[in-house]
Structures are given as structure tokens and as C-alpha cells.
Amino acid sequence: MKDIIWSKILSVGVDEIDEDHRKLVTVFNILNHAVADGESAEYLAAVLDELIHCTVWHFSHEERLMLKHDYKGIAEHKAEHQDLIKAAKELQQKILHADSAVAEENIVFLEHWLTEHIFTSDMRLGAFLARAI
Ligand SMILES: [Fe+2]
Q1: Considering the domain boundaries, does residue 34 fall inside one?
Q2: What is the pTM of this model?
Q3: Structural domain boundaries, residue 17
């Protein structure tokens, strides 16, 4: 599939969150290329590990900002973060234990995993923080 191209449409209006999201997009694209190039399951799992680590760190960053600015939607947003990490870890296990290469559908799933959260919950959070910061 095509790389995710960063554009203003993905901006949540808060620079420090956008910077994190750009990094996540970069690592996602590395994974996308790894799949297209037919890299080994171990390599794909390693890239996914990098993506998961970056995401966990980024979620902690967002959750700290939510606490600092007393964001009312914090419980719901945190629950969504936990679900996203769980889904990525399940996918990682699937990749590690699969005989065949990662199917395109898994990458499409991850692309949605990343962009849907940005387009919905993070846009709401960004609009709130842009006023609060
Ligand atoms: Fe978030």
C-alpha cells in the first residue's frame, strides 16, 4: 500500500503532538516498506516493536497533557490508547508466529489504527489543548 504522507489534514493543531505523530508516521512507513520488500517475520516484528514503543511513549505524553490541563475526556481517551496498544501487540504476535509474510490487510489495519485515532480522538484533544495551552 501507499505510504502515509504527512499533511496539514493530519495536524491536530498542537505542535508537540504533531511532532510525535510525524514520528509515528515515519516508523509506520518503514514497516510498510519492510512488508513490500518481503523482509523476514523477525524484522517485521522488530519494526512493529519500534512502532509500539514510540506509540506507548507518545500516549504517555498525551496523557500527561490531558492531566495537566484537566481534560474531561481522559478516561475514554486512555481506554482507547490501551485498546490500540493491545491490538498492535496481538498483530505483532501474529506476525512472529505466522509462516507466511504479513498480508496487506494487516498493514491496512495498522494504517486505520494510526489515522482513525488521530482523525477522531486526537483532533478533539488537540482542539481542547490549543485553547488550554
Ligand atoms: Fe490519543
Answers
A1: yes
A2: 0.92
A3: 13-132
